[in-house]
Amino acid sequence: MTSPLLQVEGLTRHFTIGRGRRARVLRAVHDVSFEVGAGEIVALVGESGSGKSTTARLVARLDRPTGGTIRLDGADGLTGEPRRASPAYRRAVQMVFQDPFGSLNPVHTVGHHLRRPLILHGHDPGDVADLLTTVGLDPSLARRHPHELSGGQRQRVAIARALAVRPRLIVADEPVSMLDVSVRAGVLNLMERLRATRGTAYLYITHDLASARYLGGRILVMYAGHAVEGADAATLVERPAHPYTRLLLSAVPDPRRERRGAAPPAAPAGAAAAPAPAGCPFTARCPLAAARCAAERPARTDLGGGHWARCHATEEGRTG
Amino acid sequence: MAEPLTAGTTAPPTGLLSIENLTVDFHTPRGTARAVDGVSLGLFPGEILGLAGESGCGKSTLAMAVPRLLRDPAVITGGRVRLGDGDGDGVDLLGLSDEELRRVRWRDIAVVFQNAMNALNPVLRVEAQLVDVIRTHERTGRREARERAARLCGLVGIGADRLRAYPHELSGGMRQRIAIAIALALRPRLLIMDEPTTALDVVVQREIIAEVRRLQERLGFAVLFITHDISLLVEISDRIAIMYAGEVVELADARTILDDPAHPYTRGLLASFPTLHGDDTRLTGIPGAPPDLVDPPPGCRFAPRCPSAHDRCRAERPVRVTVGDRDVACHLYGPAEVTP
After folding, report:
1. CATH number, span B3-108+188-337
2. pLDDT confidence of residue B38
3. Closest to A11 in 3D by CA, of A226, A231, A296
4. CA-based nearest residue to B243, from B224, B259, B260
5. Phi, psi at residue B37, to the nearest 5°?
């Protein structure tokens, strides 16, 4: 059996907040496992503070995990490359950031941004025009500076820069959330086209379930540092199992929903109360919570077809 | 599309607020950008009017011009903003002195901003900020003001125990609820909400929206709700105005906007965002970018990006006309070309 492109197991990142006796541990990412196959899109969906961006940074090796393994083509990247990722890893895994205004250097031209990775990784620096064409931009833009471009154009440049080293996986952290509505679809379509034509895989980080559904692939729902449910996009949206996923889905603006009668979500909201370290992180807000939920962390319940959830109620067949 | 066509109507409906031919210019080193270009828009008492458009379309500028909260380099250069007073013509907010305006602000028109942290004073407890608003505008004893502050907190679903909290001790959703409580403190007739939920997570956003609807039905104020998120707007609004490059290009009931959009820009917007349970149609988005308002294109401002543009669109600006149950500014629907 061949190993998947990216295999993440038990990924954990704890931050220590404060010092001395007042120090406490923030569990930003806790025991998260998933795989991304070649040419596959996996979306990490969650609210702010869910740990999705920290997971992205760990996978892109911009940060070091507290525990767990990250394997690329079956090879352990973390123990072999303790201080920083090897050039081979960095060639294979590239990152696109949320803010196309902050991720490009204002004093350099578009061409400079694209030539640098080409030269550093031993490619033909003349490929700049090709790269721009690939992301749907006019090659003449190479002479422009970032401030002369629109947000959508800048994000396309950021994607072109990631493509320069011909990566097999692009970690895209909210790549369209800062763009105007009318240009978002174009960037999402570009990502899908690159997947179809070049076999680029994506780890797509988003708070927007609808865009994750649109891109297809698999969706992993994160809550308070835990991965709570995973399934292919259609299954997750149409047959969610975890109470948190259901809450999230009920909150997404849906113009087709009946208006005035729309019931607000059942669960209480507000900041997620600090969960009992042992139990399910969603216990405090969960309409199906039982005594067991606060005490014991749920294991993965396999629901068939690659669909799973970490939920005692799901495991016990209680659906509320 | 409905056939009947009435003559060009720019006259706003009578009601709570009527914005007439309002123009706002930004004086920049590169020249003058007309951010709001002759917009007419009316609000009925107790309705929620959604204002949608992309960044830079002028929606926030338009909304902030109403209580005259614009700052340099934005200058109101024309038009009227009439606030109805129950009889007659109402009062033109643009003609008020600073002192008269001060009495209208908050008592008649209150504002909720996108970032509650910026709207709240970080070194004052929540209670002090509520009391402050009440006592600044009304002759009220400290004790009565405190009691009203507690009631206001209850109104927006926040326990009285949070009155002693500082803003940084509250979550983003709770801060926005406090901002709404402060806005409602004097029972205004109009609440302007500028992207009030954009900085919040979806679950919290849904709760705030439900709260606004509940309060609006109970207290009867009108809302001018501004956002770029048209799917959210369709859920909350009674009517929706779509803005593009400083103009209102379409105005209709929320249902009409969703089910039967007329303006090519509205159609493009609706074809730009994925829906959760929608069919798997490919989204198209809108090619190109909004025009430079210092040097806008002649004719229709959307023409360079419009799939239906023809010669007339590139030469002559469409006026907003009423077609069936909507207003739309587009040559596809407007009166035939006038032959001299």
Report:
1. 3.40.50.300
2. 94
3. A226
4. B224
5. -120, 90
Delimit the domains of chain A by residue range: 6-316
Radius of gyration of chain A (CA): 21
Tell me how far apart the alpha carbons of residues B22 and B310 are, in angstroms, rounded to a whole number.
Answer: 28
CATH number of A6-316: 3.40.50.300
Residues of A in contact with B235 (CB under 8 A): 253-255, 257, 259, 262
Task: Provide the pLDDT for residue A84.
Answer: 83
Are the CB atoms for A42 and A32 separated by under 8 Å? no
Under a CB-based contact definition with an 8 Å cutoff, are residues B209 and B197 in contact? yes
CA distance A200 to A202: 7
Closest of B314, B322, B316, B319 to residue B339, by C-alpha = B316
DSSP A190: H
Non-local (6+) Cβ contacts of B143 within 8 A are none
Residues of A241-262 as b/e, b for ≥16 C-beta within 10 angstroms? bbbbbbbbbbbbbbbeeeeeee
Residue A258: per-residue pLDDT: 58
Q: In angstroms, rounded to a whole number, what is the distance separating the alpha carbons of residues B151 and B157?
A: 10
pLDDT tens, A226-279?
999 999 999 999 999 999 999 999 999 887 765 544 444 444 444 444 555 689
3 state SS of A310: strand
- What ipTM is given for this predicted complex? 0.83
Q: For chain B, say whether A239 makes contact (Cβ under 8 Å).
A: no
Could B289 and A150 be called an inter-chain contact, meaning their C-beta atoms sit closer than 8 Å?
A: yes
Mean pLDDT, to the nearest integer, of B163-173?
91
The letter for the amino acid at B53 is: G
One-letter identity of residue A32: V
A277, burial (CB in 10 Å: exposed 0-12, middle 13-18, buried 19+): exposed
For A257, nearest residue in chain B (alpha carbons)? B235
For residue A317, is pLDDT > 90? no
**Chain B residues lying within 8 Å of A248, measured CB to CB:** 202-203
B112-115, long-range: CB within 8 Å, 24+ apart, which pairs? B112/B176, B112/B179, B112/B180, B112/B183, B112/B191, B112/B192, B112/B193, B112/B194, B112/B196, B113/B179, B113/B194, B113/B195, B113/B196, B114/B194, B114/B195, B114/B196, B114/B198, B114/B199, B115/B199
CB contact at 8 A, B119 and B129: no
How much is the pLDDT for B239? 96
Asked if the C-beta of A253 comes within 8 angstroms of chain B's C-beta atoms, the answer is yes
Taking only the tens place, the pLDDT of each residue in A158-169 is 999 999 999 999
CB B306 within 8 A of CB A218: no
Summarised one tens digit per residue, pLDDT across range B55-79 is: 889 999 999 999 999 988 999 999 9
